[in-house]
Amino acid sequence: MTLEDRLGLLAELGTRLTDFNNQTVEMAITKAHHENQWFVPENSKKAINAISSEFLQKDKLVRWISEYDVSKVKSKSIGLVLAGNIPMVGFHDLLCTFISGHNAVIKTSSKDDALVKLVLDIMNDIDSEVSQIITTTDRLSNYDAVIATGSNNTAQHFEYYFRKYPKVIRKNRVSVAVLGSEDDNDVFERLGSDVFDYFGLGCRNISKIFVPEDFNLDDLFEAFYPFKDIINHNKYNNNFTYNEAIWLMGQDDFLTNGFIILKEEKSIFSRIASLYYERYNNLSEIKDSIIEQKESIQCVSSNLELDVENINTVSIGGSQCPSLSDYADHVDTMKFLINL
Q1: Alpha-carbon separation of residue 248 from 72, 155, 207, 255, 286 (angstroms)
Q2: How far is residue 37 from each of residues 87, 183, 271, 290, 303, measured CA to CA in Å?
Q3: Where are the beta strands (DSSP E) in the chain?
Q4: Are residues 88 and 162 in the same domain?
Q5: Most buried of 45, 81, 121, 277 (most Cβ within 10 A)?
Q6: 42 and 106 share one domain
Q7: Number of structural domains the chain divides into
Q8: 213 and 248: one domain?
Q9: Which domain holds residue 305?
Q10: Residue 102: left (phi > 0), alpha (psi -120 to 50), or beta?
Q11: What backbone phi and psi angles, to 5 degrees, belong to 297?
Q12: What is the DSSP secondary structure assignment for residue 119, as one 8-state letter?
């Protein structure tokens, strides 16, 4: 397949994936929910729409790939170990492998199997040659390089297991937001999307906010009200109830509105159904804190001019719509693949 063939296929994939009236797509979304209760159909559709609009538009693909020279790539077999925390979270790695001209051997997550296989089925239907380029497996073998995503503990295992191969190993990351004194209710409501989308399970979900010293947290609770129905999801509710009980027994200070807990903490890793916060006096404090923890931060959501080097900063409300060049863990996946 030529580069032009691959670009055309990906554009067609975007069109077919977003046809939610198509029975094949509908059945895959339903199956994904049955296999993983976190994957409610609304979130699967949200992920598919984001991927289609940001990753699978031909003009965006052409602009992005023009920054790289894939003409001299010698096709190799790339093992992909995909995560499963949110729907189709590993798609970008598949996209990079495919567009660079390599073959992909995919080990899907048991938590996100149905949607990945939907993508592959559609790609193969568009061009049957895909079945020779992309395969799935229960156990990786016969690969030349690896891109693997997992927890910090799993990453240690990956580092050892794949020690003889070129590799990209990704670990736990979260995202943070920095609010300013000029931010208003509209901004806070957009922040709600960054916090609550996908139940807060993604690395681009906001798990910690930095707020001005005199910030009124009640303003957040008011703006978050449109997201109140999230508590009706059984797994989310269980996490909320557990965290509330643990902190009550420990006599910890926290605030809650019945569907999320706000807790003042230095850590940036908050629990599901909770959001940590920290007050600041000047932005220099925040910049220093972000730089110190940059290896654990995926992106920063803020409408302020933070200018933190090597950290992806997005406007509040935009954390869940990364562009093609917003690489996970700030590792240029395309550069890695091209230089193999």
Answers
A1: 60, 34, 20, 11, 29
A2: 11, 35, 18, 33, 34
A3: 77-81, 103-107, 134-136, 145-149, 167-170, 174-178, 206-212, 255-256, 261-264, 274-280, 297-302, 312-314
A4: yes
A5: 81
A6: yes
A7: 2
A8: yes
A9: 174-314
A10: beta
A11: -110, 125
A12: H
Record the tokens describing residue 224, joined without a space.
């978050």
| pLDDT confidence of residue 144 | 97
Strands 145-149 and 274-280: unpaired
Tell me the C-alpha distance between 27 and 35, whole Å: 12
Distance separating alpha carbons of residues 231 and 55, to the nearest angstrom: 31
- Pairs from 238-242 (Cβ < 8 Å, separation ≥ 24): 239/271, 239/272, 239/273, 240/272, 240/273, 240/274
Residue keyed to tokens 């020279």: 69
| Low-confidence residues of the chain: pLDDT under 50 | none
Closest CA to 209 of 242, 174, 182, 171: 174
Task: Report which residue type is found at 90.
Answer: G
CB contact set of 143 (below 8 Å; sequence gap of 6+): 77, 78, 79, 105, 165
Q: What pLDDT does 231 receive?
A: 98
- pLDDT score recorded for residue 136: 96
Q: What confidence score (pLDDT) does residue 115 get?
A: 97
